[in-house]
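Action item from last meeting closed. Structure (275 res):
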């Protein structure tokens, strides 16, 4: 993956939060906005075409087609954004996920591009997505073509999530439900645990480190920051529900696991120990 800086072994140097930067370097800010605008421009061009295909051909187009389109677009956008110096992304274990099937992917959620990074490297993956994003002109058409699942209907979400896993697809779901706020993680929801428990699927945990607060909760997409914005992803434990363990207990066990391995400093969200 061209954007993955797996060869780097130096620590990620922290940057101050760009949201409070009073006099941005205008060249850097132009790159930052070029990256952001290009994401929406690509979505606005591609998503209506995907929506038309979905409406005209329905299930005759397999969801893997939409997933391949999304993976290619996300990979290309991340490559471009890294190339112009907006992001530095390290995911040295990404190749281990290439042949993953029928697994729940459960990362923490510190930023807006967490799903973009993971979906760009893991094939056969369906995302549990905010319902308003599935209806948006930027992402909606491609998301529907890829078989993404809206998060607004509890029983339907569980049923469709189970169907995806049983069909051999992976399910990307953020147990926090929304981006991390002030703690290391937000309290976990139970939906992901219920789906994993009912299907017997393994849960692959993913730990995401964010340096600086750009793209975090409460920080505007247009807030100037000091580039590059740095992200590091590490694979955590592969977890299965224990015999007799309820979904509440499973969710609590994973929440405790994440809390012991992440630290929110206020500026950064850091990985302490992926093991």
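Sequence:
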């Amino acid at each position: 993956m061209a954007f993955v800086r797996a060869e780097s072994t130096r620590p990620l140097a922290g940057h101050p939060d760009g949201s409070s930067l009073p006099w941005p370097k205008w060249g850097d800010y132009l790159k930052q906005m070029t990256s952001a605008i290009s994401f929406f421009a690509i979505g606005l061009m591609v998503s209506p075409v995907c929506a038309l295909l979905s409406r005209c051909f329905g299930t005759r187009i397999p969801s893997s087609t939409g997933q391949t389109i999304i993976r290619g677009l996300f990979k290309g956008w991340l490559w471009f954004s890294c190339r112009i110096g907006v992001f530095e992304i390290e995911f040295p274990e990404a190749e281990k996920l290439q042949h993953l099937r029928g697994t729940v992917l459960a990362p923490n959620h510190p930023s807006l591009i967490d799903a973009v990074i993971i979906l760009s490297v893991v094939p056969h993956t369906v995302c549990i997505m905010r319902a308003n994003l599935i209806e948006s002109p930027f992402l909606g058409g491609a998301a529907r073509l890829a078989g993404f699942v809206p998060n607004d209907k509890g029983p339907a979400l569980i049923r469709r999530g189970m169907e995806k896993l049983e069909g051999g697809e992976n399910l990307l779901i953020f147990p926090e439900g929304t981006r991390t706020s002030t703690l290391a993680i937000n309290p976990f929801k139970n939906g992901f645990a219920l789906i994993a428990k009912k299907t017997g699927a393994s849960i692959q945990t993913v730990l995401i480190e964010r340096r600086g607060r750009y793209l975090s909760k409460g920080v505007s997409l247009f807030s100037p920051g000091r580039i590059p914005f740095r992200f590091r992803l590490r694979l955590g434990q592969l977890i299965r529900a224990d015999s007799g363990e309820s979904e509440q207990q499973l969710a609590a066990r994973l929440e405790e696991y994440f809390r012991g391995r992440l630290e929110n400093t206020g500026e950064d969200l850091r990985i302490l120990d992926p093991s």
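Note appended to the action item: The chain is about 40% helix and 15% strand.
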